[in-house]
Amino acid sequence: MRRRLIGVVCLGLAACATPDVFMPQSQYPPDPYVKGYADPEDCIGGESLAAIQLDLPDYPARAFRSGQQGWTIARLNVATDGSVSDVAIERALPTGLFESATLRAVESWQFEPPKTGALLNCRVLIRYRLGEVSLGG
Fold first, then answer.
1. Under a CB-based contact definition with an 8 Å cutoff, are residues 93 and 127 in contact?
2. DSSP per residue over 14-72, as a string?
3. 88 C-beta neighbours (distance < 10 Å), count
4. By the 8 A CB rule, do 106 and 76 touch?
5. 75 and 121 Cβ atoms separated by less than 8 Å
6. Between β-strands 70-78 and 84-93, what pairing exists: parallel, antiparallel or unpaired?
7. DSSP 8-state assignment for residue 114
8. How far lies 123's CA from each of 23, 45, 65, 66, 116, in Å?
9. Contact 82/52 with Cβ under 8 angstroms?
């Protein structure tokens, strides 16, 4: 009886273990100097933006499984009603891994209507690090 109980407890604990543990296989590349990609009149890093809806991208499954880390710089315009348009990836490291997830997320963002009119060429750094996604500062 005791063996059966131990077996049930071990089986139960094994069921609680998650196979989705991020195991880094690459170094996180140093953050870029985002302002270096911009003109002085561009909207940088969202200083003028107040988010209404800002869901971060999902960590791409392929990158998660392979332990890849990196970042993207998304460039976008914010219209006078706060909607996002003209989303593009300015730069990404590594290339070809995080761009699609970034584009899908950023295209759904919504901001408070900007007080000074439409904002052009806003750039936002999105980090994919240690299995989690965050905005750059």
1. no
2. HHHS-S------SPPPPPP-GGGGS-TTS-BTTTT--EEE-PPPPPPHHHHHHT--EEE
3. 13
4. yes
5. yes
6. antiparallel
7. P
8. 29, 5, 28, 28, 17
9. yes
Number of H helices, E strands in the chain: 3, 6
Q: Say what the pLDDT of residue 35 is.
A: 79
pLDDT of residue 1: 55
For position 5, what pLDDT does the model report? 45
pLDDT of residue 62: 95
pLDDT at res. 115: 86
DSSP code for 78 = E
Q: Tell me which residue of 134, 127, 21, 136 sits closest to 69, measured CA to CA.
A: 127
pLDDT lower than 50: segments of the chain: 5, 7-15
Cβ atoms of 76 and 87 within 8 Å: the answer is yes
Give the whole-angstrom CA distance, residue 47 versus residue 27. Answer: 29
